[in-house]
Structure formats: structure tokens, C-alpha cells
Specification:
This protein is mainly β. The protein is 0% helix and 51% strand. The protein contains no helices and eleven strands. The strands form two sheets. Strands 1, 2, 4, 6, 7, 8, 10 and 11 form an eight-stranded mixed sheet that branches. It has a three-stranded antiparallel sheet with strand order 3-5-9, with no helix packed on it. The radius of gyration is 18 Å and the shape is elongated.
Length: 172
């Protein structure tokens, strides 16, 4: 029965440079009224990257197209470790102005979320999502994009956050 929803199932296609021990298993679902065509990360210069440096600025971009006559769309992201631990999640409704996109049928936009990378060294996955303001899911792509954070030399890779620490001692 075709109810207009779609479930793209699991795709085992590994991301570029991905270790074979960490398999990417994208899972997708939603009612299909809008679609995430592509997800990528760009550096401050605008190049697509899959290797991020700590404390640099990056932008996650979602190519979005609407399949409905007029759709209110909230976009969000979730960052997870290869073990499924959620590290960060947010959507555009959390902005101070609480804005969402309004798209007409076949209208395309690039939704962007810019961030300063404070993740610790290691491997991560982006989940990208489109929903209505009432949380009805339009398109959710779990683990759609893998990326690696490169830490400083000697980084133990045991931290999820890359804090700028300055250790010192002072005479009392």
C-alpha cells in the first residue's frame, strides 16, 4: 500500500576515508512532503570537507526540495558517535526568532547551520531532518554523513569535546 510515505531502508555505502570497522548505516523515513537531496559540510572558505579541525568554523548544508503545494519546514541536525551516542542536536526553531522555512511545490533551498567545531578528535555522523512545526516528520536521514575531527598531536581521543584548556599553577 502506498500511503505517500517513504522508507529508504539501510544503505551500507561507506563515507570517503571511513574505516571499515565503522560502518555507516543510513536509515531514512518521513512522509515525503519535502526531501533532503544532499547533505555536506563546508569549511570557512567554502570547500566540502569530511575532515574537520577543532576550533574551526564549518557549515552543514542541506539541499532541500518541497513536494507539497505549501509547506512550513523546520530543519535540524543531530551529531552522533559511531556507537550511537548523541553528542549534539538542534533545529532552527531554537533560534531566537523561531523561524522556519515556507516552501512551495518544487521550490529548492539550501538550509545552513554554521558552527564552531568543539568536538573532540574522532569519528562522528550527522543526522539531518525536516519536519513541520508540529513535529510531523517530512524527511529524516539518520547517519547520512560521516566526518572525522582531527585533534592536536597527542590527543588521547577519549574526549567528546575539544575544550581550550590552559593548565597552570599559581603560588598561593
Amino acid at each position: 500500500m502506498d500511503d505517500g510515505s517513504f522508507d529508504r531502508g539501510r544503505h551500507g555505502r561507506p563515507a570517503a576515508g571511513q574505516a571499515t570497522a565503522v560502518k555507516r548505516q543510513e536509515h531514512r523515513y518521513g512522509n515525503g512532503r519535502a526531501e533532503i537531496r544532499d547533505v555536506r559540510i563546508r569549511d570557512a572558505v567554502g570547500f566540502c570537507v569530511s575532515e574537520l579541525k577543532q576550533h574551526e568554523t564549518y557549515t552543514i548544508e542541506l539541499d532541500v526540495v518541497s513536494h507539497a503545494p505549501r509547506e512550513k519546514i523546520v530543519f535540524g541536525i543531530l551529531i552522533r558517535t559511531p556507537f550511537g551516542q548523541e553528542v549534539f542536536g538542534a533545529d532552527c526553531m531554537q533560534r531566537p526568532d523561531g523561524q522556519f522555512m515556507i516552501l512551495n511545490k518544487r521550490e529548492r533551498v539550501v538550509a545552513k547551520a554554521t558552527f564552531r567545531n568543539n568536538l573532540g578528535a574522532g569519528r562522528y555522523f550527522v543526522t539531518a531532518a525536516l519536519a513541520n512545526p508540529d513535529t510531523t516528520k517530512l524527511d529524516v536521514r539518520f547517519d547520512v554523513l560521516g566526518f572525522t575531527v582531527v585533534g592536536a598531536v597527542g590527543d588521547t581521543r577519549s574526549n567528546l569535546l575539544g575544550l581550550d584548556l590552559n593548565f597552570r599553577s599559581e603560588a598561593s
